[in-house]
Amino acid sequence: MNEHARPQTLSERADELEEQMMHELGERIATKSVLFGMADGKVAMDNGPALKAANPDKYFLMGADPRLPKMPAKPTLIDFFNNRFASLNHLLQSATHALKGGHNEKVVMACLLHDIGVAGFIRCDHGYWGAQMIEPYVDEEVSWAVRMHQALRFFPDSAAGYEYPQMYINNFGADYKPEPYIVREYERARNHKWYMTSRLICVNDIYSFDPNAKVNLDDFVDIIGRNFKQPEEGLGFDDSPSAHMWRTLMWPTRFL
Ligand SMILES: [Fe+2]
Ligand SMILES: [Fe+2]
Fold it and tell me: How much is the pLDDT for 242?
């Protein structure tokens, strides 16, 4: 558009985006799941028959979305880090802190994976989602720690070097109180033999938002190799209890 042209109206812009999207998708129709619309305050879903009627020559997308980074046929955890996790830097900074603090590899792994729920999937209850995704592939202590950081981060432990983060006061307000299910989970975790592993996620977490920190996934490839049981068939294709979650991350716009 040259500088003298009339600015596009919103609906022209939307039409153009749709056109561009169709072009990138070729002969396929991508649809949005209800959850994607809920983030915009709408409980609604694309009407399959109406979309098909408007595009009689096209089929619905039933696999890879060409607008997203391409995944290999047998994806590894590293492939998900590179192609599906949005906030890689935060995870790497947390793991780097843990490594420099001299903690064992289970702690480093827990820090590296603690927010993959947020980074690749959804914010709400991200500790639980993340733990479930990794459960078949890591030591039980690692997935337990990832699950429990959901609750522990709301409760200080001065002896372990963790105060309630000022960032949470800024983000959620001074009067935010964790819901009863979070309190119960904290109470269960407090006396658990792996409490400190999860607590160390919190300790290494709050310092890990420096946008200028230099971190590299390559530094963790060996630790991942020793602590993540990468399935031969690729994540998503090994019939594990969480394989469907990895497939959904791979194909988030698949029709069914
Ligand atoms: Fe987190
Ligand atoms: Fe975090």
Answer: 98
- Residue 15, token pair as written in the block: 């039409």
pLDDT digits (tens, 9 = 90+) for 161-198: 999 999 999 999 999 999 999 999 999 999 999 999 99
What would the two tokens of residue 133 be?
A: 């995704």
Distance from Cα 109 to the centre of ligand 2, integer Å: 13
Residues β-bridged to residue 162:
157
d(CA 106, CA 70): 30
Q: What is the pTM of this model?
A: 0.89
Query: What is the number of the ligand closest to the CA of 126?
Result: 1
* Ligand 2 centroid from CA 42, angstroms: 28
